[in-house]
Amino acid sequence: MRKNSSTHFMAGILIILFVGAFLLLTGRFLYIQATGEVNDVSLEEWAEQKRTSSYTMSAERGKIFDSNGMTLAYDRPTFRMYAILDEAYTGESEEPKHVEDPEKTAKTLAPLLDVDEKEILERLENGIEKDLFQVEFGNAGKELSQQKKDEIAAKDLPGIKFEEEALRYYPNGMFASQVIGFARETEVEDEDGNTVREIKGIAGIENVRNDILKGIDGHVTYQRDKYNKKLLDPNEVVTKPQDGDDIYLTLDQKIQTLLEDAMTQVDAEYNPERMSAVVMNPKTGEIVAMSNRPSYNPNDPSDVENWYNDVVSTPFEPGSTVKMFTWAAAIEESVYNGEEGFESGSYRPNKQMRAIHDHNGGDGWGTISYDEGFQRSSNVAAAKLAWEKVGTEKFLDYLKAFQLDQKTGIDLPGEVKGEILYNWPSEKITTAFGQGSTMTPIQQMKAATAIANNGQMVQPYIIKKIVDPDTGKTVEEKERNVVGNPISEETSDHVLTLLESVVNGENGTGKMYKLDDYTVGGKTGTAQIPNDEGKGYMTGKENHVFSFLGMAPIDDPQLMMYVTVKQPELEPTESGSAPVSFIFKNVMENGLHYLNINPDKENTKETKSIEVPELVGGDVSKVKKTLEKQGLRVTTVGKGKVVAANVEAGDNILANDHVILVTEKPTMPSIIGWSLRDVLQLADILQLKTDTSGTGFVVKQTIKKGTSLKQGDSLGVELLPPNEKQKKENSNEEENS
To answer: Given 320, 377, 378, 437, which residue is catalytic?
Structure first.
């Protein structure tokens, strides 16, 4: 049979195609063999990458301390539990390495995690049905203590694994929270684009100095086999982590605690809209204490009402505290005669301007001297000094010399400067007594350092130093920084005398701010609050911002403090100075004693500061008696030898301070009446989990008195403000009668 010519043709084509394909594949193989690359990817590198494992060695986040080395923030080691479900993970091992028996696993874990057995079983079974490699256990499996982790691990449950992770912890709870801020674990991308978990600062110092606190993570890489086991020659490379630097703040834990406690009491009693307070060393600019209300607990920053640090972030019309700068300008310009008389009550510079009225409804006090006008906080006196004596343009120069038109540059995030409203003649006058123009508390404190410090104005700061934790070397340290000299030493002395007269003079508006052992000078403020519509001001006794800027001892001020309380709920007979003076007097009197500042008043008792003796190792009953003889409140947690306490040997504390002594076999004390700070200190020493509700003082505890305590136990407490606590007690008495 003759073959078709087309068949020969197609056969030839197929042979050519096969030969071409063969040559192409052969060439490709020869090329790969020669170059070791596929699509510009090195096969050797790809193979090495496939058999190389790596893991991150987390750097420890830097700690935050107070000026005396008291820890304010640190990473507390905790564990996250998870379960491996994939049978392939067991590999050739004779012992199972995955969850082989979900029912048994759930039954064993349920009582240890204090959760329902069905909940655990459901998680495991759902994971198996979905062919997941592993599952976690929600909140119940997170933040486990070392003790709880060891307790679970002792059960030797196949497939149950743990991953250590740090939890940022704040042992003092709601303590300078808007200063310190908080940090939380978040997911971020590393340099290789992989998602990793990292503790990141969210607010406050934690946020603004996150770069130096976070450190640099290390890495370990090694070669492995297909079962993920390290090879005999793994070519291991270790890059050690660099821990974050530690930050020491200028805050003093003792004075900050005094401030927090006083603020909490005023918050509970007067229910103000807002409060702020700041304590400074006027010689150096160091911030000793700073607090705001509303505040929050950084260990549980949920449902936060106020994120702002109002001391630096919220300008407002300050009112009469500004008058100290008005008088300082007049004295410095040599146009002030304190004995010169003027007609108080009302003042109208010309027919085009509205009249200025004194705060007593414009009645005034007749013809009085300018010195008395300062004591009585006369708006008319301030207006006449700015308009007639100094001149409005020269007065503006002084406002700028006090730098009230710019930020202070304090090392805190979110600083907002106020605004000097100085366009119209009436605005130039009202600025002299603190109306119209706005300022922040920290701006006024900075300006007031010139009065307290012989005319030298210093910059406020809150970071004392930054230290490398590995070497102990100081990386950065702040020093006193003089940023202006708006007035002379003579003017400073003169204004200090006037400030003293406000508190101690016959007609002074600051009599409520007197201290027992120290002479105080300062200036009161009662600022109006603008209406929401932006026109005019709110009316009513309570609708003001009540404030006081004071310093002591007045001859040589060692502490300066500014307190503002906005819209407190006052009794009919109470003045706005009541809540402000409560905070000021408690903090300043005790703070000066704590700092061992010699009282400047005669016939005063000696300093109340007490140096803590060595506590650890002593018999708890004997240690308690020794401390109680010194006027301290002591709570013992168990019997036997003291193994820990909330204070350390060498600390300076105040009479009536609360000392908690923990023994080797701790038992739960009664904590009814304790503050939240005391509860958190107890929980920190014993590493208890806490669940708190409410504010104020403890009225209910979930662990009964006398119960043995161990790390990881959960303590629930209910707190109520003092007035509500009393109502509850009265209600209980009525029910029981």
So the answer is: 320
